[in-house]
Records
---
Amino acid sequence: MSGISTQSTSASRALELFGAYSPIALTAALLALVPLRYSDSRTMMTVIIIGMVFAAYTIAFNIILGSTGQLFLCTGALAGIGGFTSAILTSKHGWPFIPSIVLGTLLASAIGGLLSWVAVRRSLDAIFTGVVTLAFSLSYENLVLGRKDLTGGENGLRVKAAADTILTTRVAPYYVFLGLVVVYLVLYRLIERSHVGWAFRSLRDDEVAAELSGVNVTRYRVYAGLIGSAMLGLAGALFAHNREFIAPTTFAFGAVDVRVLVMLVFGGIGSMLGPVIGAVALTIVDEALVDFAQLRIMLYGIVIVVLFLGFRRGVVPSVAALRERLTHLGRRSTPAAVKPPGSTPRS
Amino acid sequence: MKAVFLDGIVLGLQMGLLGVGLTLIYGLGGVLNLSHGQFAVLGAIVMARVLQHGASLWMAVPLGLLAAAAVAVLSDLTIMQPVYRLRGEARVLLGLLLMLGVGTIIDGYLEWKYPIEALNIRISGDPISIIGVPMRVGSLVASAIALAAGAALFVFLRYTTFGRATRSIIEDEEGARLCGINPALVRTLIFGLSGALAGLVAVSRAMTSPVISTAGVELTILALIVAVVGGLGSVSGAFVAGVLLGIVNTVSAFYIGTYITTIVLLAAAALTIVFRPAGILGRRA
Amino acid sequence: MAESAAMGSQSASGAATPHSPAAADPEALLRVESLSSGYLGEDVVLDVNLTVAAGEAVAVIGSNGAGKTTLLKTICGLIPTTAGETRFGSRRLTGLGAHRVARLGVAFVPAERHLFNTMSVEENLALGAYPHRPDPETLDSVFELFPRLGERRGQHAGTMSGGEQQMLAVGRALMSRPRLLILDEPTTGLAPVLASEAYATLGRLRGEGLTVLVAEQHVPLALSLADRAYVLDHGRVDLEGSSAELADNPEVRRAYLGIS
C-alpha cells in the first residue's frame, strides 16, 4: 500500500483526502434524498428532522465517549442549556438570533468542559464522570422546572426569534440539520486526523502508556468535553428555534440521553459514521413502533443491556475491536489508508 | 430555622440510607448501581399495588422490600456475572452501563404500566414537639425507620461474622478469599440487602411525601451524590454525608428555592471529587 | 530415572529432575503434579512437581522472578492452573476457588499480606477463623505466639509496623487452624533481626507439628527452617533435595549463598 504513494505526493494526498472525506459526502448525498419521499407530510418531516438532530447529538456524544471514554450522562441537559439559553435571550431579552445561539453554544461548552475537568483529574474517573454528569442532568431539570420566570416551567417556552427564517419551514430545516451533521462529521474527521485525534487514540488505547509518553490526559479529555458540549449546545439551540416551543421534556434525560446512548452503541462507538447509522436505525425503529410508544423506553433499556452484554470482553477493548472492524470495512471501500499527519503508524 | 434544620435531618437520614445501599455494592464489586433509585421505586409501586388490594402495611412493606431485593439479586446473578470477570476501568464502565440499562428497563416498565401510581403512607397522630418544633408523626416514624435501619446495618457490619466478611471484601478482596470467604456469595446477598434498603428508603420517604413511579432517576442521582461525598465504599461516610447533604438541601431550598438544591448537591459532589476524592471521612488522599 | 527417583539425595547432584522422588509417595499431604500456570496466556510456572509430607517443612527457593509466587498462588487457587494438578490429602485443589482451598485447611500468607487495614487486630484474626466457629483457644495460642498482637488487639492493622503486620498475617492464617501453612516471602520488608525472629517463630510452629511450605529469596534462612527445598529457576524445578544437601551443592552455594 505504501508503494503507490511514492510517485506523486500531491496525487496521493488528494487520494487520501478523498478516502477520508468521501464517506461523508456519500452519506450526505444519501440523506439528502430522504425528504423526496416525505416532503408532503409535515409529521414525517418532523420525524426525520428530529432524526437528524439526534444524529448531531450522537456525533457530539461520540467525540466525548467514543474518542476519550468519558461517559457523559447529560447530553440532553447540555443541548437544553444551548436551547434554553438561546430561547430565553431571544424571547425574553430581545437578542438577535445568531448571538443568542453563539452564547448558548459557549455556555454549554463551558459547562461540559468544567464537568470533564472535575471528573477526569482523579482515578475512578469513569465513576466520577457518571456522577457529576448525572447530577448536572438533574440540576438542569430542576432549574428549568424551578425558574418558571425564565423557562416557563412545565408550561414551556415559546421561541420567537426564528419565526420568519427557514428554520420554521417544512422541508428546509431538514437540510439545515443535515448540513450541521455534515459539518460535525467533517469536524470529527479533522480532529481524528490532527494531533488531538492522535492523542485521543493513544489515551483510549492505553491511558497509562499515553501518560508516560507525555500526553496530557486531563487536557485532552477536557478538550473533548469542550468540543462535544459545544456541538450539543449548538444543535440544541437550533432545534429550539426549529420547534418554536420548548419544554422541560424537549431535552429531558429520558428523552435524549438514553436514546443517544442507544444510537451510539448501536451504530458503533468510536466510528465516524456510527452515530448517523444509529440515528437512522433508531428513527426507523421508533416509527415502526409508533403505536407502542409507551414501550419504547423499556425497549431502549433492553437494547442497552443486550448490546453491552454482547461486548463480553469489556467496553474498552470492544471499542477497539469495533473500531478495527470498521476501519477494515473502510479500507475495503476506499483506496488509501488514512493516517493522521505527523503520527507514527499505529495498528 | 430550627424547623428547617430538623426537616433537613429527616431528609438526610433517608438520603443516608439511600447512599449506604449504593456504596455497599460499589465497595464489594466496583459496580456503580445506576438503578438503585429504580429499585426503590419498584418496591414502592409493589407496596402501593398491594395496599390497593386492601392489604395492611405489614403485608405490603415486606412484599415491596422482597420485590426490590429480588430484582437486585437477579441482576447480580445474571447480567453482572460478565462484569465481575473484568478488572479495573472496564469493569466499572460495563457495570454502570448495564445497570443504567436495567434502570431504564424498570423506568420504562413503570411508565408503561403504572404511569400515575404513587406510594403514599399516612401515619395519623398529632404533631409531636421536638426542641420546640412541632414535627409530624410521619416524619418522626420515617426518621426512626432510617435510624433503626442504619443502626442495624452498623451492628451487622461490625459484630456479625457475615458483616465482617462483607467489610473484609470491601477492604481487600484477595485477603478475604484467603480467609475462606466467598466474595461472589457475599456480593449476591449484599446486592439483595441493598435492594431491600432501597425499598426501605421508599417506605420512609412515602411517609413524608409521595413516591411517584417516575422518581427513579432522581433517587439514583441522590444516592450517587451521597455515596461520592461520603467516599465510595464507606458506609459510615455515606450516612454522615446523607445527613449533612439533607440539611444543606432543605436550608438551600428554604432560602433560595427548591430548584437550587440539586445544583448545591452537584457542587458538593464536585468539590468532594476535586478536594477530597476519598470522601469526607476518607483517610486516603 | 527409576534409580534416581528412588533416592532424593541423587537428585540434588545437579541434573534437573522432572519427577520428584516424593511424587510417588501416597502419604504426601500436598502433591503438585506437572503444574503449569501463569498470567494472560503466558506460563510462568512450567511443569513443576512438588510434594510436602505431613509434618514437614519445605522451602521453594530461587531468585526474583523465578515463579515462586506464581507457584504458591496457583496452589492456593488465586491463579488458575493451565496444566497439571494439585492434590491436598485426598482432595483435588485444582479448579477450586481460593476460598474453597482455604476452607480445606490450606492457609496462605501472601508477601503483600493482604490485611484488612481499617479493621482492628482482633477483627483481622476473627476473619481468619471465618470458616469455623470463633475459637478462643486458637486466639489465645496466637496471642501467646505473638504477645505483641495481644497488646495491640484494638489497633487498626494499617497503622502497625511492618514486623507487626507480618505477625498479624501469620496469626490470621493460624486462626483457621490450618493443616498446611504456606508463606510467600515472609521476610519481605523486614529488618534482618525481625526476619530471623520470624523464622524462629516458624521453627516453633514446625516443632509443634505444623506442615509448612515457604517461598524465600533469603536462602540461608529458608534452609535453616526447611527439611527439604526446591530450587526454582525460570519457572522450572532446577534442583531439589534435603536442606543439608542443597547447602553443600556448589551451584546453590554460588548462586544463592554467595559462597564460591
---
Amino acid sequence: MRRTPASRSRDAVRLAVAAEAREAAREVFTLDPILGDDSAQRAADAFVEQAAMSLVVLATVAEERA
Amino acid sequence: MTGMPAGDPASCSHMGGTLRRRAAGLAQAAYPLPADSATGRLAGAVCAQVDRAGRALQGYAQDLAEALATHERLAVRAAAAGLDVQGWRVVEPYGIVTVPTIQARREAAPDLQAALDRGNARLGRARAAVTRELQAAHAALAQIATRAELPT
C-alpha cells in the first residue's frame, strides 16, 4: 500500500511524540523530591516510577503506529 | 530552635516544574495528531496526569515553604520570649531563671503554641492533599498504561 504525504506526516509526528516521551521518561526518573513526610514521599516515589513507565508505553505505542 | 519540619520546597518545586514542562512539550508534539487516534488519545491522557501531579507538587512546594518560614518566624519570637521550639512544640529551656522571666514565658507560650499548631495543621492538610493527588495520578496512569498495552 502506498503511503500518502498526509500519512507520512502523521508518522513523523508519532515519531516526534515517541522521542519526546522517551526523553521525558528519562528525566522524570531522575527526579528526587524531598516531601518531608513518609506517606507523601512513598506516593511521590511510586508516581515517578509509574509516570516513567507510562511515558515509555506511550513512546512504544507511538513508534508501533508510525 | 531544634527540629525544623522536614521537607525541601526547592526539590518539590523542581519536580513539579519538570513534570509540567514535560507534559506541555508532549502535548505540543502530539497536537497535530487527531484527538481520537490511538496515539493522540494516549498522549492526551498521559499529559493530563503528569501535569496534574506537577501542579500538585508546585502547590505543595509553596505550602511547605510557607510552613518553614512560619516555623522560623515563630521560633525567633519564642527565642525573644526566652522559649525554645522543638518541632511544633514550645518548650521552656533548662536553666535557672528569674521570676519575671518565668512570667514572661508563661504569657508568651500559649499564643506561640496556638500559632505553631495552626502552622502544623496547615502543613498536614497540604501533605494530605499532595499525597491524594499523587496517588490519584498514579492510579490513573497505571490504568492508562494497562489499557494501552492490551491488544486492540
